[in-house]
Amino acid sequence: MTGIRLAPTSPGSRIAGLGHYRPEKVVTNDDLAQIMDTNDEWIQSRVGIAERRFASPEDTVATMGATAAAKAMAEAGMTPADIDTVIVATCTAEVQVPHTATQVAALLGIRAPGAFDLNAACAGFCYGLAAADHAVRTGSARTVLMIGSEKLTSWTDPADRATAIIFADGAGAAVVTASDTPGIGPVAWGSDEQHTQTIHIPDRSGRLFQEGQTVFRWATSAIAPVAIEAAERAGVSLADIDVLVPHQANLRIIDAVAKKVIAAGARPDLLVGRDIITTGNTSSASIPIALDRMRAAGQVRSGALVLAVGFGAGLTFAGQVFVCP
Predict the structure, then answer these.
(1) How far apart are the first and last CA of the chain?
(2) Which residues are in the Beta-ketoacyl-[acyl-carrier-protein] synthase III C-terminal domain (predicted)?
(3) N or C: which end of the chain has fewer CB within 10 A?
(4) Which tens digit of pLDDT belongs to each residue from 182-223?
């Protein structure tokens, strides 16, 4: 009997480039107060958001993802010919068929890649980064374009104070390629099957529903241990972590997670991504957008050790340590 032959493996993978896209339209809390019973003080005290970005009618999950991806490829020095796999994490695709990854590949001129979407909601970027890392290290892929792209405003009731003040649009992308020195740590992931309906869209024409208080209590208790486990799996001390980038769900959740991670051993001066203040909650796009904007502001240097942790509908969660490009 002939045995199965496996592809040559790589000792590790790394992020070679990052990119992001935020739509031009800025929506302030005062703008929202014109269409619902709310105000700037109420919104900022509860979720920490001052403004967010809403996509134009011309922006789609695919076009936003392609724009972010092109920036990541440029930083990595990659051409479309270098990409052999495209992964898009999204929970807001306009259509189910065709899937978004093939549309992004077509927009960028990437020929015949392996291409698929995944839906882990707001944990999508971390799930997708793990999938890209696994594909590269097992030899299934050489260079992966990993994208988180969301148009949440298409699925949110604009008059629903529980969701419309939080969710926004945008995309972030990373190029993942082989590395002799591991640059992405093992993923710590899982789900909470007791809360599957806590965040949901009831049907094809429905709008996103969220039990905000339930999600808040769950996230502030369950997510810091995931971040800590991700560092343990990567074999690094929390004191070695330079940057913590949680999913940008709610500023109070971000601060609660950071406080627990610092109490567990991270440095008191740990940099923490708080991009939600001016970008809002962009689900699977929030982590790469937050990190890329911190880099652009000169807050995070190349080579910094990043601890990312995503969490969202499902309820799903995932985290990993990686080296910032």
Answers:
(1) 45
(2) 232-322
(3) N
(4) 999 999 999 999 999 999 999 888 899 899 899 999 999 999
Amino acid letter, 21:
Y
Which residues on neighbouring strands pair with residue 256, listed in sequence order?
Answer: none
Strands 305-312 and 316-323: antiparallel
Is residue 118 scored above 90 in pLDDT? yes
Is the previous residue joined to 98 through a cis bond, with omega within 30 degrees of 0?
yes
Using alpha carbons only, how large is the chain's radius of gyration in Å?
Answer: 19
User: Helix, strand, coil: what percent of the chain each, to 5?
Assistant: 35, 25, 40
Q: Would you call 99 a catalytic residue per the annotation?
A: no
Residues 99, 102: Cα–Cα separation, whole Å: 6
Q: What is the pTM of this model?
A: 0.97
Report phi then psi at 280, rounded to 5: 80, -170
Does residue 40 surpass a pLDDT of 80? yes
**Look-up of token digits 């405003």:** 153
- Whether 247 sits among the annotated catalytic residues: the reply is yes
**Among 122, 126, 250, 324, the one annotated catalytic:** 122
Contact 199, 312 (CB under 8 A): yes
DSSP letters, 70-129, are: HHHHHHHT--GGG--EEEEE-S--S-SSS-HHHHHHHHHT--S-EEEEE--GGGHHHHHH
Q: Is 195 a catalytic residue?
A: no
Q: What is the DSSP letter of 184?
A: B
Choice among 20, 91, 250, 281 that is catalytic: 281
Q: How many CB atoms lie within 10 A of CB 159?
A: 12
Q: How far apart are CA 184 and CA 234, in angstroms?
A: 8
